[in-house]
Amino acid sequence: MITDTKTVKAAIIGLGRLGSRHARHLVEKIQGVDLIAACALDEDQLQWAHDDLGIESTYKDYKEMIKKEDIDTIFIVAPTPFHPEMTIYAMNAGLNVFCEKPLGLDFKEVDEMAKVIKQHPNQIFQSGFMRRYDESYQYAKKIVDEGGIGDVIYMRGYGIDPISGMESFTKFATEADSGGIFVDMNIHDVDLLRWISGQEPVQVYGLTSNLAAPQLEDIGESETGVAQIKMDGGVIATLIGGRHAAHGNQVELEIMGSNGWLRVGEHPDLNRVTVFNENGVTRPSLQSFGERFDTAFTDEVQDFINNISKGTQPEVTVDDGIKALKIAKACQKSADTGELVEINL
């Protein structure tokens, strides 16, 4: 539990692409927290944490770190299959836990994880659905909630990584199970469908292909995934996940209403600059999800730290994480079997 009401003592597990971003935010941007320890298997990552962020205590064994360090909370940004066991160990050790999405890949392990979390109601647990903290999505939800576009009829979520990340993803997916394209790429879109529409998915039909990256077949991955979802209140939704956007990072949400439309991120502009040169008239594009959601990542972690200090649970619960995982896995099951899949939440 917290020993200092002013400063939350934290440690982090995982210093990869997202973990390093969280670590830097915790050191440089987040108020009321002191990141005192880090755990990773990669020696270069640990050296970076020590040299660049000034973290004195580094470990390769997360259990050893939790046992030795005087901490109040842990940030879990390790590969997805390890999330349940790490969360269970940390919660049983009396720590508050921030766990990146998805919660896990195996439902039995995730159910046990949820059971342990609920056994510790005085500890704060938060899953990393940072898009709920993004100002654009919050504004879109406000318009929907106020009836600004009438009744929601249809929603479409894009999550397409830049082609420049293909080599990095292939290496990652060769070494660890990504969960498939819908879990890995569209779980945020799934959460937004539920959050903004206020409805729950009941049926899904999914398709995948590797036309743009046939080499992914060898590691059991898909380059493109498309899922049609029927919601319990009548809303129809489409999810599109991919890894081959030539222009940059395409993260987009469309909400079609009976009296208007909303589009969030229709054009992935890096800034408001328009370039006029020999290539024509162009707008620089965002090249990573980190650039697009940097402020949202900061705001969600700051909210987590604030909740720890106040002893309040976050809006995003473990049940939200479980539902998003079930929906995303149902999309993948449909794509794998070629059948319509019923979703029972």
From TrEMBL:
Residues 137-263 form the GFO/IDH/MocA-like oxidoreductase domain. InterPro entries: Gfo/Idh/MocA-like_OxRdtase_N, GFO_IDH_MocA-like_dom, NAD(P)-bd_dom_sf. Belongs to the Gfo/Idh/MocA family. It comes from the Bacteria. Keywords: Oxidoreductase. Residues 9-124 form the Gfo/Idh/MocA-like oxidoreductase N-terminal domain. This is Gfo/Idh/MocA family oxidoreductase. It comes from Lactiplantibacillus modestisalitolerans.
